Amino acid sequence: MMTTLSQRRFSIGLAAASIFAFLGTIKATTQQPDTAAVIQQVDAAVKARVDNIVGYTATEHYSVYRSKDEIHPVAEMTVRTAYRRDTGKSYTILSQTGSEIIQRLVLGTILNNEKQLSQPGIQEGAWITSANYEMNLKPGGTQSLDGRNCLVLALTPRRKTPYLIEGTLWVDAKDGSIVQVQGTAPKSSSIFTGPTQLIRQYMNVGGYPQATHVRAVSNSFMFGQTIVKIDYQDYQVQLRPAT
Q: pTM of this prediction?
């Protein structure tokens, strides 16, 4: 009788231990998403955006600050940007104030680089995809950002170029779309500036992420520390017709 009771207690204890172990496995799985699956989701989100956005227009406001003064810009520029998937970006300057040297050497360089980068055959090299980056989930893997549940990945460029960023990527946990990217370009895009540290934020426009704000910091022998802020507004997005 005692043997049977002991066996039952042992069986019950073993079953309970198995249940707790199973629940622990579920919890661990929930807390640590599969990295490969997340990367596939990010790649799919980027592809969906590229395939479905035919073009867009937006108003971009650029402000340049020197040293640690982020209140009084030394130069400002507002442009209307038009993007077409088959031709890239074009800019119409709406207004500009402040230092003409900064306008030409800093803001002019930024616009020229963005125009070149948007060209078909070139822009693919700057996409945030596994073709251009090694991606790994950071410890913990999740974070709330602007009210959105995000997955957090470390980004390592597969090659040195001013158009890629070494740093951190936040993507929406639901669909892998980009929410924020922060880091440093491993190579400078201009002889007038050093490598740029930046943070770029996105929001959903027409079903796909578009940049809303950029803050970029660089240092150079000519200008010292330079901070560029870009605000994007008035998006008009043209999508591919549904088939």
A: 0.83
